[in-house]
């Protein structure tokens, strides 16, 4: 057996729906893939605007079938733009935290076979702080919170940070300002969030930058294309590429916990 290979697991989250989590997940995945990283995108949101819809792809097989032993994880992966491979949303993704011991073992096996073919796993989470969302956040190494300049987005991000810190001892969060006008507005938004967290919590927020509000994102969504793919020179695309450069410089996990099978183990084991 080959030595387990470190995989960076990044959960893209934010509390509120509609802030841009799925668009950030997809485009960050494409940008990293264009840089030569092998990326898998796990769609952990069964909601309406999921990745299948965003990219106009249709999944033939899904994780529920892996769990029941009907197929392998390989059969589930869908090729997306730029070489990203996608695990589409399904009841299986939602159920990952409530598996029988058999399914549990099967899933860990399925992912460990994939472990040496992936450098980055991006998990696009659902809105809110449901048990399922929290399980993904607990299991990931990096939490990337997408926030936009609306009071509800800031309060939801705060609630999520507070919960993860208080109940699970997470104290490091990466913050991305989305749909802002410029760099200054992004920093200003970050300032608003840190003012509340500094007062009430013992956490470290790290600003990773901003993605500007850009009509090209909306147009791309309408065309069921990723903005990075359809409009590679749009402002939002350039910002995502800069974000990917940064993400690529984040330290790789060095502990054995930084391997894919451990992520899955933490994920499925988190309710036991
Ligand atoms: N940077 C942006 N500029 C313009 N519109 C955006 C941007 N990011 C997201 N949007 C719009 O917001 C909508 C919701 O984005 P989505 O990624 O589906 O959010 P979430 O996954 O957080 O619910 C998208 O359909 C798109 O129209
Ligand atoms: Mg979404």
UniProtKB/TrEMBL annotation:
Source superkingdom: Bacteria
Keyword list, A-Z: ATP-binding, Cell projection, Cilium, Flagellum, Nucleotide-binding
A GO biological-process term: negative regulation of cell division
GO molecular function per UniProt: ATP binding; ATP hydrolysis activity
A family per Pfam: CbiA
TM stretches of this protein: none
CDD domains on file: FlhG-like
All copies of domain CobQ/CobB/MinD/ParA nucleotide binding, residue ranges: 10-225
GO cellular component terms given for this protein: cytoplasmic side of plasma membrane; cytosol
Keyword ATP-binding: yes
Protein name listed in UniProt: Flagellar biosynthesis protein FlhG
Organism: Marinobacter segnicrescens
